[in-house]
Amino acid sequence: MDLDVFVNAHRSEWDRLDHLLHRGRKLTGAEADELVDLYQRTATHLSLIQSGAPDPLLIARLTQLVARARATVTGTRRATWQDAARFLTAGFPAAVYRSRHWWMPTAVLSTLLAALIGWWIAVHPEVQSAIAAPEDLRRMTSPGGEYETYYSSHPAASFAAQVWTNNAQAAAMCLVLGAFLCVPVIWIVFLNVLNLGIGIGLMSSAGRLDTFLGLILPHGLLELTAVFVAAGTGLRLGWTVIDPGPRTRRTALAQQGRAAIGMAIGLALVLFVSGVIEGFVTPSDLPTWARIAVGIAAELSFLAYVYILGGRAARAGDTGDVADTERSAELPVAA
Fold first, then answer.
1. What residues have CB less than 8 Å from 54, skipping those under 6 apart?
2. What is the CA 147 to chain-centroid distance, rounded?
3. Quick check: 73 and 39 in contact, CB under 8 A?
4. Residue 328: pLDDT over 60
C-alpha cells in the first residue's frame, strides 16, 4: 500500500466525518445517513492501514475518529435501576444456577474432605501436637478459649466488615485466578477446607464439637456456599481455557469472564449477609438452636433464590452475560 496515495484519496472523507462530529446542532436526516456511511468507511480504512501500512500517528488519529463516530452512531448507554434489578432477579441467580454442576460437587467434596481431616486430627494425638503445643491447644479449645472469643474480639460492626472484606477477596481470587488452568482455585479451596478441618478436629478432640458447630453453622453455611460457588465458577472458567468447545477460546473466555465479573458482584452481596450474621448473630446471647436456625434460614433462602429465580431465568435463556446488544460482534466459526 502506498500510504501517501491512500491518505490523499481519503483525507476529504475523514475531514468531512470530523466536521459532522463537531456540528453544534442536530444533524439532518441526510447528514445522519452520511455520518453512518463515513463512519463505516473510516473504520474500513483504519483496518486496512493497521494491516498494510502501520503508521502510528495516522492510526491514532483514525482510531480516535472512529471511536467518536461509533459513540455518536450507537449512542451511550447508562446503567439504570432497572439494570440492577434485572441483575439481582435474573442475571446473577441464573449464572449461579447454570454453574451448579461445578460448585455443587466442589461443595460436597470439600465438606467430605474437611470432615475427613477433622476425624484424622481428632483420633491422632501426634497430629494435634504437630499443630501446636498442648498448652496452646488448651488455650484454643477450652471454654472461653480462642475459638469462642474470636467472634467477639472486635465490635460487631467492624468485625462484620473485616470478615466481609476477607471473604469477598477470597471469592474474587477464585473467580479471577480460575483462568490459570484451575490450579490457584484448588489451592485456595484446600486452604479453606484445611482450616475448617483443623477446627473440627481440635474441638472434637476436646469434646466440644457441638460448641464449634454452634459457632460455625450460623454464618458458615451461607459463607462456605458463596466460596464454593466462586470456586466452582473459577474452575469452570479455567476449564474453558482448556476446552472452549465449539467457540473460539477468546470468545468462550470472554463470555465466561463477563459472567464471572457479575458473579463477583453478586457474591459480594451474599458474603455481606453472612458477614452481618457472623458479626451480630454468631457471638450473640441467643440460644445455639436459634443461631443455627438463622444460618439455616439464610442458606435455604439463598438456595431458593438460585433454584427458583435463577432456574426460571436460565430456562428463559439468561446466562448471566451482558445483553446481546452490548457484546462485541463475533465472527462465525466452523462447526
1. none
2. 30
3. yes
4. no
User: Of the given ranges (45-54, 110-119, 137-146), which has the lowest mean pLDDT?
Assistant: 45-54
* DSSP code, position 132: S
Count of alpha carbons within 13 angstroms of residue 320, beta-carbon side: 26
Q: Is 315 exposed, middle or buried (0-12, 13-18, 19+ CB in 10 A)?
A: exposed
Reported as a single tens digit per residue, the pLDDT across 245-288 is 777 777 777 777 777 788 888 999 999 999 999 999 998 889 99
DSSP string, 269-298: HHHHHHHHIIIIITTSSS-HHHHHHHHHHH
Q: Which helix (H) or strand (E) holds 159?
A: helix 156-177
* Residue 154: strand, helix, or coil: coil
Q: What is the DSSP string of 44-113?
A: HHHHHHHHHS--HHHHHHHHHHHHHHHHHHH------HHHHHHIIIIIHHHHHHHTHHHHHHHHHHHHHH
The set of cell numbers assigned to 232 is: 466452582
pTM listed for this prediction: 0.71
